User: Which sequence fits this backbone?
């Protein structure tokens, strides 16, 4: 920490999170601690606040929470296209909205990142750690593909990617249809790659936005420590909310595009 | 040329990726606004699709940012 009156020089945060302590050989990083804090906060919020909501006499706070919930539900319905699909995926998508949103915004509470243990801050924004976002994206894509697998059955699921049957049918119809089917066959393999790319782009988008925001904040503090950082912090609050919406929205859209309706598929 | 100098030139070139992403996102949002202006009742229908489109266009910039840190 050095610099003159107008500039506050700080350290640019590492990409890897700091390990606060370890249980046996299992390292506990500061992002993991903050995830635990978030879980405790959200569970106690549900247990202590939501329980007291009443149907007869709704308070102002209850109306605000219910309005937020309603808007998230209609948003998910618009994304997934149908009411039924929205109902299937609603719990997981709303959890993603709330978790990513609160995780992006909670470090705006002053002093939370100043709590240290052996010189290491014990709380750090979970989404600025690539492990968190990769874990979430991986879990979501595996969940979506597993649901598609159970709905379609093994052979039809594999048939989405390895299109042998359309290839044979195409060559039975004629040469030009056969060549088109051959191209489709190649595109089927590209779909496997695109599923892997979905994991990477989903996780890197969230991580990149939040981490770049933190790095830029340190740089702006180094350039001019008055007024300018507050503008950037306002902007990063906005980005935090937008990224939470985008993460949930993309998961809902991927679900709607890869998983067929439960009714349409004959058993 | 020293390796460090080449690295800085590469980082500068990677920053040019912002150009394409900005054009793409501006086009998407502009077209969405145009559509909403023509038919304001479709706002609720267009807005989520616009968000998804912008997020897709943004992923190229995210790839560039990852390259920026890797180089």
Assistant:
């Amino acid at each position: 920490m050095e610099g003159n009156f107008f500039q506050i020089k700080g350290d640019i945060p590492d990409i890897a999170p700091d390990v606060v302590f370890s249980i046996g050989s299992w390292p506990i990083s500061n992002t993991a601690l903050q995830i635990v804090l978030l879980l405790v906060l959200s569970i106690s919020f549900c247990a202590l606040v939501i329980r007291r909501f009443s149907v007869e006499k709704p308070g102002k706070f209850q109306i605000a929470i219910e309005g937020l919930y309603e808007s998230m539900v209609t948003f998910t319905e618009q994304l997934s296209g149908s009411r039924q699909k929205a109902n299937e995926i609603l719990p997981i998508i709303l959890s993603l909205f709330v978790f990513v949103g609160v995780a992006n915004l909670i470090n705006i509470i002053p002093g939370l990142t100043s709590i240290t243990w052996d010189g290491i801050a014990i709380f750090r924004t979970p989404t600025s750690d690539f492990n968190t976002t990769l874990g979430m994206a991986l879990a979501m894509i595996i969940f979506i593909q597993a649901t598609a697998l159970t709905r379609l059955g093994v052979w039809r699921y594999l048939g989405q990617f390895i299109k042998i049957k359309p290839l044979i049918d195409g060559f039975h119809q004629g040469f030009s249809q056969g060549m088109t089917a051959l191209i489709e066959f190649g595109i089927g393999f590209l779909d496997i790659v695109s599923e892997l790319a979905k994991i990477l782009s989903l996780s890197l988008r969230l991580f990149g936005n939040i981490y770049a925001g933190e790095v830029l904040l340190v740089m702006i503090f180094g350039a001019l420590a008055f007024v300018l950082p507050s503008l950037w912090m306002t902007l990063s609050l906005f980005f935090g909310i937008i990224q939470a919406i985008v993460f949930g929205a993309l998961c809902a859209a991927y679900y709607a595009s890869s998983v067929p309706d439960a009714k349409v598929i004959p058993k | 040329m020293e390796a460090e100098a080449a690295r800085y030139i590469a980082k500068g070139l990677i920053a040019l990726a912002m150009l394409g992403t900005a054009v793409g996102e501006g086009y998407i949002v502009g077209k969405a606004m145009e559509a909403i202006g023509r038919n304001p009742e479709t706002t609720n229908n267009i807005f989520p699709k616009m968000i998804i489109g912008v997020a897709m266009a943004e992923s190229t910039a995210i790839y560039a940012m990852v390259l920026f840190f890797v180089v």
Observations:
- Chain B has three helices and no strands.
- The mean pLDDT of chain B is 88.
- Residues 1-70 of chain B form a domain with the F1FO ATP Synthase fold (CATH 1.20.20.10).
- The first helix of chain B runs from residue 3 to 15.
